[in-house]
TrEMBL record:
Name the record gives this protein: Uncharacterized protein
Residues annotated as domain PARP14 second RRM: 129-208
Gene3D superfamilies: 3.30.70.330
Species: Staurois parvus
SUPFAM superfamilies assigned: RNA-binding domain, RBD (SSF54928)
Residue ranges of every copy of the PAR14-like first RRM domain listed in the record: 11-89
Length: 327
């Protein structure tokens, strides 16, 4: 029987079943007990029956339990280098309907009775639309066409219609962005287990939730304070800026917000800074790159260059048909 002060449960599942998951009890308790790793807090894992298809983690504080549920991605890295994709939900949302009475805690209250005091469940199902997956160790021999087939064969989805690929040759990687409903954790598990994928020595992981954007096409000589104030304006879909790095040579900036939710609002708007259009792209610090999306980066046509020329040379060019044809 566990400590009666731990009254805020979550159900934990993964693709290889609860019994194997239970063997990682100590690593899981360290992960979910760390606010920096999982947004969790003080917790315990009880050696209860895992036949319902999950194991239960009990948090001491309700706020810690809620933070864990609100976080979309939970990953546990093992000593052998593999990464487990974990899913957490409220227990009543994972267990099968049963006719047996609910378990009793020390105070004699049933889990069903306790669940009435829990906040309304937030949607914490596996990350779905437009969830980016990083494919690492991508060699030149694995062309975009081959990678597209590997992803399509694993997911049953179609290139362009259901997903698109952005290659990042600088880090020998590519990012797969799904534009359809798909269980990302399930896809990563199947992709990593594919014999063809193993032959290419590819590794797949879900990209983290981010709070940063890359801003491009910033007008020259724009003060840093103006960029900060622009993105802190609610009118522009912004919020409190935690950090800003100006990239003057690139007419760009990296903006990091204090809250994750700001990214969704700011990316849905069109932006004008000093009456000039600017472009925003999600930036992932873990790979040091932004994602430009299906359309790619905005390309600006350079201004035409005027070169003074002697009227005698111009007359010669105009008379020479071969030169005129090449021009």
């Amino acid at each position: 029987m566990g400590d009666s002060t731990y009254l805020h449960p979550v159900a934990l599942t993964w693709s290889q079943g609860p019994k194997k998951l239970k063997k990682l009890k100590n690593k899981l308790q360290l992960y979910f007990g760390s606010k920096s790793k999982s947004d969790g807090g003080e917790c315990e894992i009880r050696d209860s029956d895992c036949s319902p298809g999950y194991i239960t983690i009990y948090f001491k504080e309700e706020a810690a339990r809620d933070r864990v549920l609100q976080r979309k991605d939970h990953e546990l890295k093992l000593p052998d280098g593999t990464t487990l994709q974990l899913e957490v939900r409220l227990p009543e949302d994972t267990q099968s309907t049963t006719t047996s009475p609910p378990p009793q805690d020390r105070a004699g209250a049933s889990q069903a009775e306790k669940s009435r005091n829990l906040p309304e469940k937030k949607e914490v199902s596996p990350s779905r639309s437009s969830s980016p997956v990083l494919i690492e160790n991508l060699q030149d021999s694995c062309t975009s066409e081959i990678l597209s087939l590997l992803v399509g064969n694993t997911s049953g989805k179609s290139m362009d219609t259901d997903f698109y690929i952005e290659r990042i040759p600088e880090i020998q990687s590519a990012v797969i962005t799904f534009t359809c409903d798909i269980d990302i954790a399930d896809f990563i598990g199947k992709f990593s287990g594919s014999r063809r994928v193993k032959q290419h020595k590819l590794k797949a992981r879900r990209l983290e939730e981010i709070r940063s954007i890359r801003v491009e096409r910033i007008p020259s000589n724009t003060p840093e304070d103006m960029v900060t104030l622009y993105f802190e304006s609610a009118k522009n879909g912004g919020g409190s800026v935690e950090d800003l790095e100006m990239l003057l040579d690139e007419r760009a900036a990296l903006v990091t917000f204090q809250e994750e939710g700001v990214l969704k609002t700011v990316m849905t708007k069109r932006h004008m800074l000093n009456n000039n259009p600017i472009s925003l792209y999600p930036y992932y610090p873990s790979i040091g790159h932004c994602l430009y999306g299906k359309e790619g980066p905005h390309m600006e046509i350079p201004d035409s260059v005027k070169i003074p020329i002697s009227p005698h040379i111009l007359a010669f060019i105009l008379k020479n048909e071969q030169i005129k044809t090449k021009c």
